[in-house]
Amino acid sequence: MNEKKITILHSNDIHGQLNFTVNRDMEVVGGISLLSGYLKRTRAEGPTFFGICGDVLQEDVLGSDYKGTNTVELINYVNPDCLSLGNHELDYGLAHLLVFKECVRSPILCANMIVSNLRQSLFRPSMTVEVGGVRILLVGVIPQAFFNRITSDQFCRSMLEYKDTYEALREELKAHQEEKIDLVILMSHYGIEGDRILAEKMPEDLHVDLILGGHTHIDMDQPEIVNGIPLAQSSFGTTHIGRYDLTVDADGGGILNWKWSRVPLTEATSEFDPGVDDLADRVTFQKRKKRGQTKLCEFEKVFEHKSRLYETDLGNFVADAFEEYFPVDFVILQSGSIRRKECGPVVTEKDLSEAYPYDDYFVEVDLTGKEIKDAFRYLFSLKPDGSVMNGTFLYSKSFRLVADGTDCWQKGCRVVSLTLNGKNLEDDQVYRVGMTRNCASNCMRYFALELGEERQKILSLSTYHVLARWCLARKEKIKAPVTGRFIFQNFEG
What we know:
5'-nucleotidase,  domain 2, 2 domains
């Protein structure tokens, strides 16, 4: 048997995250420079394929002048073997997508977009590549829901149509049936649930060896195996890269054995690439002076934050933006993270960075109703030092807290009610609570609630850039947030 050993590297959902971050242990994590360094090292070690499964782009403050295309130079530098489309590549419409297609040097794959009258694919549906004597067929796919985003105008609706993924895969396999294909890899942006369905319902006449995925931003310890097909994603951003080490039957085709890992991109696993560092600095900072004046959004009036003790328009606005952006039930936000007493009506990047300067990870913590109730009872209890609260907080619009301050300084305050969307919290129900990692790390001090790293699911590396992106997407004036989410009865401060 002719056995060949190759490495498959895959990334997804980079979202324009070009720069490294520093974690709480002062360890440098991620960034395009460490990604490039890891690619160079692995390619030098042996036959390697590298693909990106969608969402290279995302509108952010750094890319708002370029509609995300400032990322293209860096993607060209790291030179992936191919990319497939994600939903954020479709954010700016067809014209922008076609410019992106022409500027990226690597092949961009999508088998689902068809020019109706020509019966021709708008993008390359597939490609073959030989890696270390192994011939691989790669097919890029997206779900119809993402395709529908680009057909918002009449021209696109009349000229483009969606091709079913199984039909597209069948056509690509047929087109290459005379070739000796050793591996078939699906590059998908369906999300993990969609990939499970794709694998589970795979028709018997079709064959796929691996599904490299994206969109869900999950941290996987090992691939899932569905209908004999391994499914894997590499988290999101540039903090990790997915790696398959494969042994392939180069005579009969197929995988003989495999090992997968989600490799953290740190100085322990990689090294910085000086070439990409210089390029990233130029791409990131060349319009920094102009950036300060970039208009992000407009409020219907001036939003104020004159007290940390009570809810405010500006604080509610930030908490609500996070609740809308992330898949959480409600948000707890430290009031001290809002650093301007007022902001608006016109909000520039400079205004926002002054109003919300504390950039942090945003995490989801799953808590039972009982844990939440116990946490707030402790928050308002009388502490040994005579204080009632260790911190002051803001809450998003779905949440409502009512506390009674009668004899607060002698007995502590009483939590009257905690509701979510107008319903009392159920003790046994699990709720998804969003907060910054700083808040989660201090929950023992604030709420007598121990939240170790294992209970914190990272949803974003940058709360500030999420807030800026959310603002950029608002086309209408932002109305003052609904109040009444924190009511303090009978309290004399």
